[in-house]
Please model this.
Amino acid sequence: MTVKRYALVTGASRGIGRAIAIELAKDGCAVLLNYKSNHAAAEEAKRLIEEAGGEAELMPFDVSQPDAINAALDKWFAAHPDDYIDVLVNNAGIVDDEIMLLMEPDQWHRVIDVNLNGFFYCTRRVIEGMVENHHGRIVNISSISGQTGFPGKVNYAAAKSAMIGVTKALATELAPKAVTVNAVAPGLTDTDIFKQSIEYTDSRFVDVKNYPMRRLCKPEEVAYLVSFLCSNRADYISGQVIGINGAAL
Model:
């Protein structure tokens, strides 16, 4: 009897999150599509998965609000008393760019709350099932911004570099329970969040910054890597930070 694997992907309505959700569904996971407010985009992601023969469920909540997370997951666990979430992809993120001199406290806290604190709130609720079942996959979506500096992004860089640190620490905690924890650090990726960034002007930016492949990363390329890390082929890979940046770093 094949045991159904459930995968929770945060920020799954668009961009990298949607691509990951679609790929995990192709791998046979029943995907829980988290999103904050863009219901139409989330419904579209669900439709794409189901039309391809996959299984998906909408799970709306704000990752920066622990009460909302707990309410959504309490409801899901109550409806699935014999199941657990075997895969967690902490992808939800925002940008609010400004140079440090002009950055307001609210800009700092909002980016940290979504990009970093959301990891804590979601992961804390999900790992119990992984530990009890001696199997699980956690993939944290970091960024090249967490590995090197870009002007105007100190809040984003702080959150994404912290994701690298928590990945390494949590991997050591969960290793005895056969739960792997890894981080993926994409370079500039062709998503809506990049187009909101202080870096974005047009495609010439990639040339100006001397990206060796002279193009943006595709969301699907990130999804392929996440899919591998969540598979049984990656049982002994944990605590790693894997860049996907076209040789930019």
User: Anything to note?
Assistant: Strands lie at 6-9, 30-35, 55-60, 85-90, 136-141, 179-186, 241-244. Residues 6-189+219-239 form a domain with the Rossmann fold fold (CATH 3.40.50.720).
